[in-house]
Amino acid sequence: MTLNDLLAQIETLSDADKRTLIEKTRQLLAAGNGSGSAKRVAETALADAYVVERSAPADDPAADDPYLAALRAKIQADFARPAPTPDKMLKRGLLRGMVFDEEDFRLAEWRPTEEQLRGEA
Fold first, then answer.
1. Sequence-separated (6 or more) residues with CB below 8 Å from residue 57
2. pLDDT tens profile 22-31
């Protein structure tokens, strides 16, 4: 595991888990006192503390719902996407000075077919 992999996984932790990780790291490094074997023991303990399996509580009714699981996965994937580069973003003031009327908004409306609404298209 590279440092970037570790940092990417840390980003997915909750704030409380990040605070716990920081405190555990501080304690382990303080206990190591810089000696080689103590430092390796501290690093191993930190790795063991970091690898925690997260599972939904047994009393969580949403844990078995495939729709909610797919939705959670989609949200996590969306948040994990990198921010677009400036050349991919809309320029500020791009539409300044343009006048839109009701016809423009009617043309831009999405009018899905029945197949699209059922997810078949």
1. 63
2. 888 777 777 7
